[in-house]
Amino acid sequence: MQTKIQNLPDGTLYVPDTPTIPFVEGDGVGPEVTRAMRSVVDQAVKVAYQGQRKILWKEVLAGGKAYQEQGEWLPEATIEAFRTYLVGIKGPLTTPIGGGIRSLNVALRQTLDLYVCQRPVKWYRGVASPVKKPEHVDITVFRENTEDIYAGIEWEAGTPEAEKFLRFLQEEMGVKKVRFPETSSFGVKPISRSGTERLVRAAASYALATGRGRLTLVHKGNIMKFTEGGFKKWGYEVLNREFEKEIATGKLIVDDCIADAFLQNALLKPEAYSVVATPNLNGDYISDMLAAEVGGIGISPGANINYTTRHAIFEATHGTAPDIAGKDIVNPCSLILSAVMLLDYIGWSEAARLIEKAICTEFAKGNATADLAKFMENGQPMSTSAFAASVCQEISE
Ligand code: NAD
Fold it and tell me: Which residues, including other chains, have CB under 8 Å from residue 55's CB and lie 6 or more apart?
């Protein structure tokens, strides 16, 4: 029986009725949120498709569990499973300290070249928010995931490398603008046409496919003219070249905004934005600020996606929360809503909508884990497992 999701030559996904989906349970609160997520997804798929479809979950190891069982933080078999089965999901992972081990999340992202970090930010009625009209927040961020100052090209002040780089700047490039040359660290910020084009193309295609119809390029091109400014220029160029008809007919409205103005506007008039494409560093700040507008990290979903090969790993956006691990109080919504994104990604939107609707109903009743319930008017703090069971019950009704 074929259980592999496949990327067809026309760019669509082939999804069997029983797809194998690899998952990493995660460290700390990972097992608790993963258990909750799987129970809710299984219930929604069963109800939506009357037993005709079913996810075949395949556990793969990463993080502390992998290290304990196999002596490796990120076994090759795990990367291979994500490569083979195309679409997977993961709980939070401990970042190993020392020993030259990279962040596991970064390693997975780089190995599969997952160039879009996608974060939908939407408010659910009942959840406390610091903004006056949270119902106006419905923004999906496409953050570039492979370039920018995050490429990790840096030299520490006082090292021979920093001195060598300084000499190169001064002697070969004629740079005179380094204010404190002797005590400066240096970093390099690569932003390319190729990297920008594939991100902006993915964001525009998403805006059209979801009927959102508005795309904003957020950049700091007024100051960093060739990197952030390049992002804006190349972004508009690829849009005008590949989406000319959609722009001309008003199906896709395109604009841009300077990053600092965007941060202000997203608080004051969030309804002005729908899909946002932005370089890596801006995207990091923007995603977390927007998440705070709708309830914070416990409820914000995310995914790392390569829209060309269609590899995608959906993930909880919070960390391993060691302070509350094993207490059955963690909010499982970040991973559950990431699974909603996954279901939409593979075209199982009926199941996705059932989950969203059930969560909305729970929140409207004041049912939530303590982190959210304590700020709700009619909040009823529930354990992780009781909340998941209540969502499953709601899906069946
Ligand atoms: P964290 O997100 O784990 O926790 C920050 C605070 O938020 C804690 O008080 C925690 O209890 C709370 N919190 C987080 N998620 C919650 C949830 N779903 N429900 C209720 N409360 C929640 O961040 P941290 O403490 O800085 O990091 C802990 C570990 O997680 C580190 O090893 C870090 O590297 C790792 N980390 C992993 C990821 C990932 O895998 N995607 C992301 C961030 C941090």
Answer: 18, 19, 21, 41, 42, 45
